[in-house]
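User: Fold this; tokens only.

Assistant: Input:
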Amino acid sequence: MSKRSSPICCRLFFATLVLVLISRPATPQESKTTTLELDHASICGSNLDTLRQALTDVGLAPDLGGPHGNGITQMAIIGFDDATYLELIAPIKPGVSAGSDWAKFMADDAVTCAWAVGTNVLLEEVDRLKKAGIPVTTPEHGSRKRPDGMSIEWMTANVGNGTPGSTLPFVIEDQTPRAWRVQTSASVQGAPVTGVENVVLGVNNLDASIALFRKAYGWAAPLTENQKDFGKLAYFPGEPVILAAPSNGGWLSERLAKYGESPVAYLLATRDFAAATKKYKLSGTKTWFGQRVAWFDPGKLKGVHLGVIGQ
């Protein structure tokens, strides 16, 4: 039988252990990152029927979504298999858009206008953004009445400066089941496009915008490359945003001068790039960050830059 350790030995052992723990260098805490869950991307115009027809003409027929609770705007929706969607927004009464955050975008038929990310913990996300030093509004209630009479409700918080979703995405949390808000549209059910994959944001200063997104979400430095039609791009792998800064004037510079920083293009995910290219008669195929990108005809889409991205 072994002898029981003496009280002095025990005290010496624990004292040594404490000193070792105290003297160990502190392990730097890894910065937390936030992965964004893209909810929807918006297209603004002066007439909802015109927007709906434009998308229908390229094979993406929207469903009528109904009027918003603000009494100013109405919407139509293209819901995809992954539960993201394209939202078409226009005034309920032609020419009457005052009071909407996107009044200028609608009045000018500026099309791509905003994007949103979803959450189940809106108040926590608002608090996190504030602590990161990012401007964010107090959550507000929103609603929409579907054509079948069902009322859909949510809460949103606007993040950053400018109109909601112009650069940093606004955040939305459902108050009613999300399936009430978006379902796969018949026009894209089983189609080669499966959801909204990327929002391309036009920005004036690429370095400043990169710093803003890294500050807001704790992301690592992005990949960058140049594309003739969009200037210099920055992509945060795994995230739904691509930043685009003009390099030599052109349409992007003109848009930034007129509307400020805002979405300038949307890219849809695909399960079969070749099939999508054939079905939708896409053109202008390029490689962005190792993936192929091709475009719908912007003339048919009233100026909307809408593409497909995939292998």
